[in-house]
Design brief:
The protein is built from ten helices and twelve strands. The chain is α/β, with parallel strands linked by helices and 274 residues long. It has one domain: Vaccinia Virus protein VP39 (Rossmann fold, 3-Layer(aba) Sandwich). Helix 1 runs antiparallel to helix 10. Bound molecules: S-adenosylmethionine. The site of S-adenosylmethionine has 19 residues, from strand 5 and helix 4.
């Protein structure tokens, strides 16, 4: 199978998630009254193995990192829509009974199969990674996670896909299917009010907001609409040309979780970032 080639920003993302997942599993394993069951969910999971564009070497993916964390998570849910990737995950985890692999669209599988197994009232908790290549995540998943109180999420907010395909200078030219992809992630059409100023620019188009403005509006939405009480300022992930590919968000019902992630984000923020 052809492995994904990853840039430096993906290696940084993997490291951030590994650091927090390690702290999370340690804290949750130590909790006794009540004793909690804690799970790791990887919704756009990948195959578990990548190749670094820089060094040409193999790099462990997010699922492999999670499986190696000690103290361990009590169960793992990995979802990938790609047949070969799901098969590679199955092979790598053969014999591990607490690993559940779904070859499916995660927007459905999370809501119908996985989230129902992580109920707050059953003393279950989960860290969930939502890491699509682009605009492929459904707001319903985010809103459900926010309402459950048992789930914390890392979320890839794909601003480069938005800029290329939806947030054009002239919004009137954007194809309907691209608008629909944006609505699906945002949950409604209110992104238009954030992305475009009603004042016209010199060229007769509405003035377009910058990436940070759009990301901060989404941070507000995660809090006020999805109901996550704690959402640190996201970290922009940039390519070698310093263009922002996506923002990595974290959202949690717990203040201490947001504090830990803010400290990790700050270690990787570049000068000039928010
Ligand atoms: C950015 S990669 C994931 C990388 C992985 N999280 C890591 O860091 O090692 C995105 C993955 O999502 C999968 N994918 C795309 N659309 C999907 C969907 N609707 N449901 C589940 N998986 C999907 C792709 O096959 C791909 O493996």
């Amino acid at each position: 199978m052809k492995l994904d080639e990853i840039g430096n920003w993906t290696e940084v993302k993997l490291e951030i998630i590994r650091e927090y997942a390690t702290a999370y599993s340690k804290i949750l394993s130590a909790q006794m009254r009540p004793k909690l069951h804690h799970f790791y969910i990887d919704a756009f999971s990948g195959s578990g193995l990548h190749i670094s564009k820089i060094s040409g070497k193999f790099v462990a993916g997010s699922t492999s990192n999670a499986l190696d964390i000690t103290p361990p998570f009590q169960g793992f849910f990995f979802i990938d829509i790609d047949k070969d990737k799901a098969q590679m995950l199955r092979k790598a985890t053969e014999g591990r009974e607490n690993v559940h692999i779904y070859e499916a669209d995660c927007n459905t599988a999370l809501l119908t199969e996985v989230f129902p197994k992580v109920q707050y009232e059953d003393y279950c908790r989960a860290l969930c990674l939502l890491d699509p290549y682009g605009l492929h995540l459904d707001w319903e998943v985010i809103a459900k996670a926010g309402s459950m109180r048992s789930i914390e999420i890392f979320l890839n907010f794909p601003v480069m896909d938005m800029n290329r395909n939806v947030l054009w200078k002239n919004p009137e030219n954007v194809p309907a299917d691209q608008i629909s992809r944006m609505n699906t992630l945002w949950g409604d059409e209110s992104w238009r009010d954030v992305a475009y100023d009603t004042r016209e620019s010199l060229f007769g188009y509405p003035v377009k907001a910058d990436n940070d403005t759009i990301a901060l509006a989404f941070q507000k939405r995660l809090k006020e609409v999805a109901g996550f009480q704690h959402v640190p300022i996201p970290i922009p992930m940039r390519n070698s040309k310093e263009a922002t590919i996506y923002y990595l968000f974290f959202a949690s019902p717990k203040p201490v979780a947001a504090d830990i992630v803010s400290q990790i984000f700050d270690k990787y923020r570049k000068p000039g970032d928010q």
